[in-house]
Structure formats: C-alpha cells, structure tokens
Design brief:
about 475 residues, mainly beta, Jelly Rolls, Immunoglobulin-like, 3 domains, eight-stranded antiparallel β-sheet, 3 helices, 34 strands, about 5% helix
C-alpha cells in the first residue's frame, strides 16, 4: 500500500514509466461463481415493459444444465424483473446445455451446447418490431430465433443480477466475464463485429458494462467487493464469494483484446495530489482513464484513504491564566512549541497537555497514524495576575471596635484602597496599601455606624463597622 504522494508516484514508476504501462499488471479477469450462493447485485436497471434490449456475456462452465439428467439444473447468467408471468428477463443455460431466454411462463432455447469447459460468447436480443422478436447467439453466430407465447412485459424498478435468478434460485456454476446490457436490439452484424473484443468507447445505448477485470486471478481479493460498471458507473456488489483461491473468486478471464482495469490502494496524510495534478481531500475510489497503444480506453481505480490529524487544542485553567493547553487528539505523539521563540521545541513538553509557566504563545506538533501536523498558536497572557478577591474572604477585625481595627484581605494583594464613610455620606478616612494581606486602621471616630469601602483589582467590597 502506498503511504504518500511520493510513494504512490514511486509505485507507478516501478511498474512502468507511464500510467498506461503500469496498468498492465492486471490482465483480463472474470468472476467464478460456485453454483451455491454466489451472485452480484448491480445498481443498474434493465429495460422494462416491451422495450428492445440485448444481453451479452462470456461464460465458461462444465455444469450439466439439463434438469432431470444427472442432477442438471438451470444456470442463470443475467436476470432482472419480478417472478411473475412475463415480468422477468432471465438469460440462462438450460435445455441442450445451450443458451435460453425466459420471461416467466415461456422461453426460447438455443441448440449449441456451451458447457465444454471453454470460453463462449452468448447473447440474446429482443426486438419487439421484428418478425422473430427473440434471437440467441453463440460465439457471434445466430443459434436460434423465434417468438414467445407469453407477452414480454418486464417489471420496472428492479436491479440487474448476475449469477442468480431474481427469486434466489438456479445459481451459475463457472466463470462469467464481459457482461453487457443494452437498451437497444443489436443487429447480427454488430454482435459478430464486437463479441470477441472489449469495447473501448461504450455507446450511449450500453446500459451496463461489467468487464470484470479486477482483483488478482485466484489471489487474495478479500477487499475487492465491487464489480465496476464502465458505462454509467452503476457498479455491482459481490455477495457470498470466498475471494481467495481458484473458485468463488476473481479468476483469469476470456482472452479478449481491449482495455485494462487496475485497482490500487494509497493512504495519504491530508490532501492528496495524484500524478495528473488532481487534488483530493476526502477518502474514496477515484478512476483514471487513459488510452492504451491499441486504442482502447483503460482505467485505474485508486482506492484512496485520507488520514488527518485533529490539531485542535483546548485551553483551561483559572479564569485569569487559562495556561493549561490540551491537544484534542489522543493516543498520539506530541511536541509542544514556543511560537514566540521561532517555534522552538519546549524541552520535556511531550505530553498531551502542557501547562505554561510564563506568558506567551504555544503550539503543538501531533503525530498520529503516520501523519504529522501542527496546531495553531494559542496565547497565554494571565500568568502573574491575581484573580479578583472573593468578597467572603475580606473581613474587618474586630467588629465592633474602639476605632482601631484590621482589614483582613485573606491573601496578599498588590494594591488596595480603603475608605470609611459616615452615615451623612462624608468620607472620613482614605488609606492605600501595597503587597499586604492585613491592613491596620487607626481612627478617632465618634461612636456610630460607618461604611468601609474596600477596592482591590477593580473589585469593590463594602463592610459595616461599628465604632463604640
């Protein structure tokens, strides 16, 4: 797996000097179906009602397809619709081990057996305007034609399945490759001209095109769970495949000239710029198309994972200081920096949290999952400033007094202003003190009730004092 842009480019260079050359690592493949429960459900919808259509596929099988003869069973290649009379469109192998089309209630069978263990191209064409509405082809040649006694009225809104009938029965045993579904009736000349090669530029009438050139033949393909569509991106999902070994897996396909289809993986820290200059900021599968020397369009599918690091920092501490900085990312490697000192590393500051001991601006380098990023700078400015005094801590002792008493601030304060006011609203005393916790007051005031106004660090507290 490529871990960075540079490594990804190196991968390309090691495999060849251009995108076209490194795509050669993936030969034409196919899907092997185990005849038990393997199937592909696509997101493509086939033609409905009485619309014209064509299905093509390459198949390789040795299965007995004739029911009642040694355990023979119908082999479903492609199907869609619902299981009701005239409402499905099931392309399969059945009588004579030959191709057959069924619509539910009736069908047309070919005469050429294709279960000899070799690759064969099979096709069905439905043209509601033709004299013979149905035609079956084997290896590019017409094999059978005719009409059905049940009207074709394929149900709409259903997805194309490969390798199993819509009711979940009659799975395919063998290999399927190069599935093409058209919304037009292909002519005999068109079938003959194109059956034995991949299509390089799919026409607009090609509804779905599954080349199956993915995975590593008979290799470990546990992550290759999607059958790509090269006409309208209506991809299919593989169900119940083993995806390892020679069966129920991606295998060597029909030997057709054409394009290549390659899947690569890359993991990158932050935004990723591919070899063609396109930048991606989110994970996903991205497709590159190019033209090979034989003129065929080919594709590379890059399964890209974008790793990011959370560089957020939370500040906490006292209201004045807020000097505790904590990286939001956990289980990472940390190095705190002094932004005001050319972003120099702070010795020993390698924990998720850092407590600043002096005012300044701080950031943190975070390394996680092979990615490294740096946070913004966070300002600490309240160190050395005392928090406002709690009013409950300020006391006058003794109270009542004979005129001499002490203002107890509860802690040392930088500067405090003390005023005494009588009941007539006259200030009768003013005193200031610095760096003091207990301030003595000496007065010769007449007996009575006075207000003592104490101002500290912008906070004003008033206390009553009784002079006896």
């Amino acid at each position: 797996m490529c871990r960075s842009t540079r490594t990804f480019l190196t991968c390309c260079l090691l495999l060849g000097a251009s995108l076209g050359s490194f795509a050669q690592i993936n030969p034409s493949n196919a899907l092997n179906f185990d005849g038990s429960d393997d199937y592909v459900l696509t997101t493509a919808q086939g033609a409905s009602g009485t619309s014209a259509r064509t299905i093509e596929a390459w198949v390789r099988t040795t299965a007995n397809c004739i029911p009642g003869t040694g355990g023979g069973v119908q082999q479903t290649i492609v199907d869609w619709g619902i299981f009701a009379t005239g409402s499905r469109f099931t392309f399969n192998l059945l009588w004579a081990n030959a191709p057959r089309i069924e619509v539910g209630g009736n069908g047309l069978s070919g005469v050429t057996a294709v279960n000899d263990g070799y690759w064969h191209h099979v096709a069905v064409v439905y043209d509601p305007t033709a004299t013979n509405q149905y035609k079956l082809y084997v290896d590019g040649a017409l094999d059978a034609q005719g009409n059905l006694t049940v009207a074709t009225n394929t149900s709409s809104g259903t997805y194309i399945q490969i390798g199993k009938r819509v009711d979940g029965s009659n799975p395919f045993t063998g290999d399927i490759d190069e599935v093409r579904v058209w919304n037009t009736a292909r002519t005999s000349a068109q079938i003959a001209a194109n059956y034995n090669k991949e299509l390089c530029s799919p026409p607009i009438t090609l509804v779905a095109y599954y080349r199956a050139n993915q995975g590593v033949a008979a290799g470990n393909n546990s992550t290759v769970l999607t059958l790509n569509d090269f006409s309208n991106n209506q991809h299919g999902t593989l169900y119940n495949f083993a995806l390892t070994g020679s069966g129920s897996n991606w295998v060597a396909g029909a030997p057709l000239p054409g394009g290549k289809d390659t899947t690569l993986s890359a993991t990158h820290c932050g935004a990723f710029t591919d070899p063609l200059g396109t930048t991606y900021t989110s994970s996903g599968t991205y497709t590159y198309s190019y033209t090979m020397a034989n003129g065929c369009d080919s594709s590379i599918h890059l399964q890209l994972t974008i790793d990011t690091v959370d560089t957020g920092v939370t500040q906490s501490g006292t209201l004045q200081t807020m000097n505790i900085l904590t990286a939001n990312a956990s289980n990472a490697v940390y190095q705190w920096l002094d932004c005001g000192n050319s972003y120099s590393a702070i010795n020993g500051a390698t924990s998720q949290s850092y407590t600043a001991t002096s005012n300044g601006s701080y950031a943190v380098i975070i390394t996680q999952n092979g990615c490294t990023d740096t946070s913004s700078c966070y300002t600490v400015a309240g160190i050395g400033l005392r928090e406002p005094q709690s009013p409950a801590e300020i006391k006058l002792m003794p109270n009542p007094s004979k005129g001499s008493f002490t203002v107890d601030m509860g802690q040392t304060v930088e500067k405090v202003s003390i005023e005494i006011w009588d009941v007539m609203g006259r200030r009768v005393l003013h005193k200031t003190a610095e760096n003091s916790a207990r301030i003595p007051i000496q007065t010769k005031l007449s007996p009575g009730v006075y207000l003592v106004k104490i101002q500290d660090n912008g906070q004003v507290v008033t206390r009553r004092m009784v002079i006896e």
